[in-house]
Design goal:
With 343 residues, the chain is α+β, with helices and mostly antiparallel strands. The chain has helices at residues 3-14, 16-20, 44-59, 64-77, 121-131, 139-148, 160-172, 191-196, 257-262, 265-274, 279-293, and strands spanning 38-42, 97-103, 109-116, 136-138, 201-209, 215-224, 242-245, 249-255, 303-309, 314-318, 324-328, 335-338, 340-341. It has one domain (35-341): Glutamine Phosphoribosylpyrophosphate, subunit 1, domain 1. The protein contains 11 helices and 13 strands. The two termini are 14 Å apart. The structure holds aspartic acid (ASP).
Length: 343
């Protein structure tokens, strides 16, 4: 770790005891009115359009599960997008492989990892959840299942920006998944950033409570650009990238998946909420856990969590500055929230 970040890191760890005092910030669920429906999704720049689709379902008294699936499908279809759907950045072999998972209010969950040439991995994950005895299918088997269920195989379509970034990357073939750069004026998908090849990972994670008070979540990504072929991140792993417990709340993660997997991040956030912590404090404690447990691996990594509880209260937290999200409620239309951060 370079000395400046190291100093910042040590300073943050030194604050650890102060964080314990946050335990006092518990929420008194029984005294609050439940706010519903609510939907929130990671990374403001992409989340607004996804939230629109989700809100349409929720505002018509639809199910949170349908809302989150419809919502993230919007991002999976977008082309101005570094890291979600078939238009995302490829792995180091030039192949786009996708990860996704979904979880509903009945503890049902479905997941797909390292799937190729299928444009809506979130819907494949939902089909796995609803039509198979399994939770997770990967690679060729997942693709076979998708095709058998009516999904069409799609060719690889790198945009000119992605093509340029991939070619530039191949010159050096230096894998640096943890780089955390300042986002441009137009967000992480601005052409100058895409072409620079510097912004190299992202996810849309969406969690919602519907008008009946039921929770669901969805998470979909291509993971890290230029990852090793076959690498799977946190996003399709139930408990890491996403977790829903309809008695308590839901949480979703974005950022360097390896860090999230190491602490079972989203499950941890939900367990903190079960202990009575607010969504924001629960996310903060999961971020603290990453920092505490991963001093060697952390580097410049970014991780952000979002959470919502059974009362419709929500919050987020990140390791570093720059993580934002969008929220829709009956009062707020795609409100931008800049998550607090620790380092
Ligand atoms: N969590 C994703 C992964 O590691 C990437 C991201 O959200 O930035 O695959």
């Amino acid at each position: 770790m370079e000395s400046n970040s190291r100093r910042k890191f040590i300073r943050t760890i030194g604050l650890g005891s102060a964080f314990l005092a946050l335990k006092g910030q518990v929420y008194a669920a029984s005294k609050k009115t439940v706010q519903k429906p609510v939907v929130l999704a990671t990374w403001y720049n992409q989340a607004t359009r996804a939230n629109e689709a989700a809100w349409k379902v929720l505002s018509e008294q639809g199910r949170a599960l349908d809302a989150v699936e419809q919502g993230v499908r919007v991002t999976e279809s977008e082309t101005e997008n570094c890291c979600v759907g078939l238009n995302a950045m490829p792995d180091r072999d030039g192949i786009v492989t996708l990860d996704a998972c979904i979880m509903d209010e009945f503890n049902n969950c479905g997941s797909v990892a390292a799937i190729e040439q299928i444009d809506h991995p979130i819907s494949v994950a939902r089909l796995i959840m609803e039509k198979t005895p399994h939770v997770m299918l990967v690679g060729a088997g997942a693709q076979q299942f998708a095709v058998a269920n009516g999904f069409k195989l799609k060719g690889l379509k790198l945009t000119p920006g992605q093509e340029a970034a991939y070619k530039a990357w191949r010159e050096k073939s230096h894998y640096e998944p943890v780089k955390n750069i300042e986002k441009g004026e137009h967000g992480p998908f601005a052409p100058e950033i895409m072409e620079s090849g510097e912004y190299n990972h992202d996810t849309i994670g969406m969690i919602a409570i519907d008008s009946k008070g039921n929770l669901s979540g969805a998470c979909t990504t291509s993971g890290m650009a230029y990852k090793m072929h076959g690498r799977v991140g946190d996003s399709p792993i139930i408990g890491a990238g996403l977790f829903v417990d309809n008695e308590v709340g839901a949480a979703v993660a974005t950022g360097v998946g390896e860090e999230v997997i190491r602490i079972c991040g989203s499950h941890l956030v939900v367990e903190f909420m079960r202990q009575g912590l607010s969504p924001e404090v629960a996310c903060r404690k999961a971020v603290e856990r990453i920092i505490k447990k991963s001093p060697k691996n952390l580097g410049d990594s970014q991780v952000g969590f979002l959470a919502i509880n059974k009362m419709g209260e929500y919050g987020g937290y990140a390791i570093r500055e720059g993580f934002d999200y969008a929220v829709c409620t009956s009062q707020l239309h795609n409100q931008k929230v800049n998550a607090k951060f620790l380092l």
